[in-house]
Amino acid sequence: MEFKSLKNIETSFRQIRFFGIAFVVLCAGIVGYTLWNSYSFAEAQRQKIYVLDGGKSLMLALSQDLSQNRPVEAREHVKRFHELFFTLSPDKNAIESNVQRALFLVDRSAFGYYRDLQEKGYYNRVISGNINQNIQVDSVSCNFDTYPYKVDTYARQFILRESNITERSLVTRCNLINSVRSDNNPHGFTMEAFEIVENRDLRVIDR
């Protein structure tokens, strides 16, 4: 009789220990799930932007992952540089202003081209000849598989004179690296090792 009582007590301890361990595991699972759910909720909230419209209504806008938009920003950065650097008008101040803004987007490799053109009197001929030069960027090819990113740009230049319009093919190449965003460089890129691969006349149209 005494042996049976001891056996029942031992069985009861085992059951208590089993339920105790099961309770601890259950609590740990609940705590883990709560923490994971809280983190997921906080992460989802960070993707939302609440906009106060005139202090009256609260609107919800969704923010995007910056990495998803980098290829678009890279192409726009390169396109903007070409528009500033290769668009010329017969105005010295306008030329210098555009070139200075373009040089914020690139390293000193582009400054070498600017200095060569300046020394050869190209900008003076543009001013004295009342020439306008426009550029149309056809495509910007960026390779984001390797860093720094390889970029090839295909564009057309239009040199407008009083007597004719010259259309030229322009192909450039550079490397693109990440840099700090600023008012002068809103996309946060810097073009390195800029070079003009091709710059040749396609046709001349009489006016």
Walk me through the structure.
The chain is α+β, with helices and mostly antiparallel strands and 207 residues long. It has five helices and six strands.
Strand count, sense and closure of the main sheet? 4 strands, antiparallel
Number of helices: 5
CATH class of the largest domain: Alpha Beta
Compute the average pLDDT. Answer: 85
Strand content: 25-35%
Question: What is shown here, in short?
Answer:
This protein has 207 residues and is α+β, with helices and mostly antiparallel strands. The protein folds into two domains: 2-62, no CATH class; 66-206, VirB8 protein (Nuclear Transport Factor 2, Chain: A).
Task: List strands and helices in order, with pairings.
Layout: H1 2-46, E1 48-53, E2 57-62, H2 66-86, H3 92-103, H4 108-119, H5 122-128, E3 132-143, E4 149-160, E5 164-178, E6 189-206
Antiparallel strand pairs: 1-2, 3-4, 4-5, 5-6
